[in-house]
Amino acid sequence: MIDPYIIKQLKELVDAVDITAFPYQKGNSIRIAHMVIRRSKHGYLIYDCKENKKIAETYSKTAAVAWARCNIKGFKHFDQIRKLDDEIAKHHTDSLFYKYTIEKTDCDVKRETAEFRLDISLAKTKEAKANLMSFLFV
Prior knowledge:
By secondary structure, this protein is an alpha+beta fold. 59% of the residues lie in helices and 18% in strands. The protein has one domain (4-136). It has a five-stranded antiparallel β-sheet. A hairpin with a 2-residue loop joins β3 (35-40) and β4. α2 (61-73) packs antiparallel against α3 (78-104), α2 (61-73) runs parallel beside α4 (108-136) and α3 packs antiparallel against α4 (108-136).
């Protein structure tokens, strides 16, 4: 037999959760409450459906979702999000260059240097994404 007190607490907990604040994918866009995130050639575009205008453009999906969440919650961490997104863009581009260098070079010294720098860029990208994730759970 299930305790009625537990059922009541569970119902209150479920009713307290704002379901519109959870991101979900619909078609080719990600929706969070009244915000829509769409992929473009150069990154991700963030639209506000209430005001019917584009709010921002980011390089990474993580930054786009963090931007939309902060906008919905009313937080003003946009400069920090932009900085972390720029860091992800830089290190991702560097990683592509290092991978190409590793693939194409015949010089062992260049290959080893590129492998070392690739490891650093991948670690910096992972760190920046982890910092962006902290904005998602605010």
